[in-house]
Amino acid sequence: MISGIAMNQVKMKSLIVHGLCTMFLFSVCDDVHAQKKDSKAVQAASSQQKAVVPDSVKDKNAVVVETPKPEKKFAFSAVQVFDDILAIQKRGKLIVAMYYQDKPPFYFVDKEGNTIGNDPEIAEAIAKAIGPDVKVEYLRTAKTFDEIIQLVHEGKADIAISKLSYTMERAKRVIYSQDPYIELYAAFMINRSAPSSLSLSGLFSKESGYRLCAIKGSSQVRVAQELFPGVDILGAETAEETIQFLKEGKCIGSMRDNNEIRKILFDDPKLNLRYKSVILKDKKDPIFIVTDPKKPKLADFIDMLLENTQSLKLSLDEIFAKYEDKLR
Prior knowledge:
Structural class: alpha/beta
Largest sheet: 9 strands, mixed
């Protein structure tokens, strides 16, 4: 569904790709191209490059090994600067909306009071690419993820990097990045008192009488309704409330992503005695950056940065390993 919805963005962005090297403040050309001052020479060199289209149909059992490619550097160029980026440069800061509570290892405050994690690292990389003196200011007033979207929609934040999933309603209000920076999976935290004879489909069928907890308006609600037609969902205002409902016996299971459930059981290992985790590897939950709809060139710029900076797209295991010491 996501790839189909994003197709229009892909078509639109393909029209400007060949002009990005000469129009953006920071080009993603090779170092040799960046040194050429003759714009015609840059265009000629760019026209010889062929786009590589990833093969979306692959043998799921095949192991693909790719030779690591050097990351392309964003070089300063005294060409036209789009207003989207110029405004951030003049302001000297990139305003990033983020959920008010910590979501380790994606974003959290360490003992020294610094906002760290995977998402802040991406924010810092974007700011540095926009300008060497551009700092990141985190706006963490949103009490729900939909409030984060609202902050970006209203222009109170330039972007949001806050472990945001895709929903159709959100996509009407902000610009989603063309690609996710990580893919998580739909997952459940199930009370071990649930009948072992029942599959997930049976457990959350209309006839079972069991309820599922999920955050209101979240992508998890949509996925649950697709997986289990007629499922009785108890909507919670926050992620923490879904777990509270589960502990109080108001539902037999809570639906989150695999990172959230992994972190809950990591923080309190005793919960493993009462609950079990179930991860659906065929139900991906891609996580995106969103941009102010009035700043489409900034959105294009972020797409280019993500596409050409592989170090910004880590797996969940890599992120946990990177911040494991900080999580204890």
